[in-house]
Amino acid sequence: MEIYLLIKIGSQIGAITTILLIFSTAIVGIYYAKYEGLNTLKSGFIQLSKNQTPTYEVISGAAIAFAAILLIVPGFVSDALGFLLIFPLTRKLLFNNLIKKFKFKKTKKNDFIDGEFEDIEDDNDRKV
Questions:
Q1: What is the pLDDT, as a whole number, of residue 116?
Q2: End-to-end distance of the chain based on CA atoms, in angstroms?
Q3: Where are the domains of the chain?
Q4: What pLDDT was estimated at residue 101?
Q5: How many CB atoms lie within 10 A of CB 12?
Q6: What is the rounded distance in angstroms from the CA atom of residue 8 to the CA atom of residue 14?
Q7: Which pLDDT value is given to residue 128?
Q8: Which candidate in 13, 44, 86, 127 could, as Cys together with 54 as Cys, close a disulfide (CB 3.0–4.6 Å)?
Q9: DSSP secondary structure letters along 63-79
Q10: What's the pTM?
Q11: Distance (Å, rounded) from C-alpha 49 to C-alpha 40?
Q12: Closest CA to 76 of 16, 14, 15, 7
């Protein structure tokens, strides 16, 4: 798909323009990934200072790193996916959809194990 789009777009706007477009999306994407990464890190430290686990921030940081990799890889499909992952609004929508999809129903479980025991006392044991 990437190669097909590169050829199609390259034939429409020219090879040099396509190459410049790929490099510019990579450069802009990397700088924006750096910006979003620092914001996520700051938010994570705020969560830690409130004695809360920064779960969303950790997952968001991993998504930003993956988005940066997608933006470095040349191609328009990978750039589109990278930009979708790097923007906070679309990232949050994606995470919410994944949470809804993989959310397990809570079932009532017992926190104990049924069993029998026997108390054994030996009168022959000597404690020294």
A1: 81
A2: 80
A3: 22-100
A4: 82
A5: 9
A6: 10
A7: 54
A8: 44
A9: HHHHHHHHHHSSSHHHH
A10: 0.71
A11: 14
A12: 7
Cβ burial, residue 24 (10 Å; 0-12/13-18/19+):
exposed
Q: Which residues of 49-65 are buried (b: 16+ CB within 10 A; e: fewer)?
A: eeeeebeebeebbebbe
Tokens of 63: 């998504």
**How many whole angstroms separate alpha carbon 88 and alpha carbon 38?**
13
From CA 9, how far away is CA 17, in angstroms rounded? 9
* Residue carrying structure tokens 């104990």: 112
pLDDT tens sequence across 102-112: 876 565 666 66
CA angle 80, 83, 84 (to 5 degrees): 85
Condensed to tens digits (0 to 9), the pLDDT of residues 47-73 reads: 999 999 888 899 999 999 999 999 999
- Residue 15 neighbours by CB under 8 Å, 6+ apart: none
Q: Could you identify the residue written with the tokens 């959809």?
A: 97
Give the whole-angstrom CA distance, residue 117 versus residue 128.
27
Report DSSP state, residue 16. H
Angle at 38 between CA 94 and CA 21, to 5 degrees: 70
Residues in the chain: 128
